[in-house]
Every structure is written in structure tokens, then in C-alpha cells.
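Reply to dn_fold:

You asked what the input looked like. This is it:
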Amino acid sequence: MQDFDVIIIGGGPIGIACGLEAKKQGLSYLIIEKGPIVNSLFNYPINMQFFSSSEKLEIDNIPFISKEAKPKRNEALEYYRRIVTSNQLNIHLFEKVTEVKNNGGSFSIHTEKNQYTSKNIIVATGFYDLPNTLNVPGEDLPKVSHYYKDPHFYASQKLAVVGASNSAIDAALECYRKGAEVTLIIRGPEVGQRVKYWVRPDIINRIEEGSIKAYYNATVKKISSTEIQIDTPDGVVTLENDFVLALTGYMPNFEFLEKLGIELSLDEKRLPNYNPETMESNIEGLYLAGVICGGMETHKWFIENSRIHAPIIIQSIKSKIA
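and this is what came back:
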């Protein structure tokens, strides 16, 4: 069984940043990622453009050069992949963590392929794996997806997009421009205020001109193989429908955190307990990094403001070892 000074669960940008910092400080480390390098970014829509500019996505002061000020998904994949390979980071890909045991002073980490031990663990698992579900009849039909990849798939189809955030609005616009008949179903009274500032006017104009139909203050009531029922202020509306993109956000794996023994707030935010000065949770030797620190407030932490977690955590770990 291999032993490390620190094991990092999650190979996204912040997990990679933690690995870089651990290597720089001379600690033995291992990054464990259940999918490919930056798995969450890999699963983003093909044409996705970041809200942040490239320099704000940089880690460890390694320059991120992009064609435009705000890079796209493929450029981010290239950037983070090159960091991993050129720095020869110790990362195990396509290896899912199945169990973590607290042995009192050290941890046993079990994966689908191996077992490891470490006195310190960093959880940097993000939030993209568990979608917020609609909890309506028909949501389990093959025509319904909580993830959006490529607009070409929906060409010439009647598509309902549920949501009002960046992911939903991007999907609605891209699919409309590839020939889909798009209907937006928005729970609130307007398009989300956090939608990228250069995209929001575009979707509002498309709605106002009638190119995209939008139902505000509306929720999905039922989905069938050929229709979708919507609760609106004017009553139930039934539409012909081929596909549904339920892009209503995602959440961290709270069950995994609770199994680790991490305390979560009892309100709807479900904020994990950690010391912001060290990022150490209520479990000694167990640290949190990245968006997972925000619980259900998944907009609170992102790459540009959580990359500072890496040096904070590694400094705390190194001080213990010293």
C-alpha cells in the first residue's frame, strides 16, 4: 500500500494547482481523478466560452494564452493538460475513489484499482456530477438530459430548455442557430442576472423578436415521449416536444462529504465546515479546495478565486510535517 504526504481527490484545475504546489514544496503527493484530466471541463459544452479571462484561469503563474480574452473549452483543456504533462504530475486518471477510512491520524483511501494511505487529504471534487433534478413524471425518459454537448444534435427538433443561467441560455441560443425550435422555461420573472453580459442582450432580443419562445414564472409539470406540460401564470400549457434539456444547475456530492465526517450546515446552503485560514475541515488532516467549499452556493467559488486554496493548504500541511 503506497503512502503519501497528501492525496488530492479530484483532478480539475484546483486539484492540479494543489498537486503543483505539493511538488514545489517537496511533498509526496498523488492526484486521483475518476475521469480524464479536468473531467468537469471535458464534459462542458463543446463551444463553451468562459466568463473569466484567460489570466484569471491561470494556475501557479503559468501563462494561459488564448485567441480571445475569454478562452473556450478546447483552449482550457489544452492549457491544463499541458500543465499536467509538462510538469509530470503524479496523477491517476479513470480511478474512482470508493471509500476513505479515517484511522485516527491517517487515512486509508480505497479506489476501484488500488489502496493508498496518507495523513492528509484534499477534496477538490467540484460539483458537476449531480444535477438538480426537476422531480416530475417523465424526467427519466431518454429524451431528457441534464447535460448539453453539441447543438447539431438538436437541429430541426422541438427543444425545451429549462433554466435561466449561463448553461441554459448558451444552449438555447446555439441550438436555435442550428435550426432547433427552442422554448425556454424559466422559473423566475426574467433571464438570470448572472448570464454573461455579452450573451444576455442576445437572448433577450431573440425572445422579444419571437425567434425563441420563453415562459416566465413557469415550471415543468410533466414530460411525455411527444409532449411537455408547463405550469404558467396563465394555466397549464402543453407543447409538442422532441427533447428536453433540463439545465437547472448541479450540486456537490454531499453524501461523499458526510461519509468523510465533514459537518454541513443545516440550512439549504449546506455549507461544509472548514477553517478559511487553512482550508482544513472539522476533520483533522482533511482539507477542502475549490467550488466544493460553497455547498449549494456553486456560484461563490470558481477557478479564479479558489486557486489561492492550493498554497494555503500545502503550507498548512508542510507546517505539520516540519
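The chain is about 25% helix and 25% strand.
Hope that clears it up.
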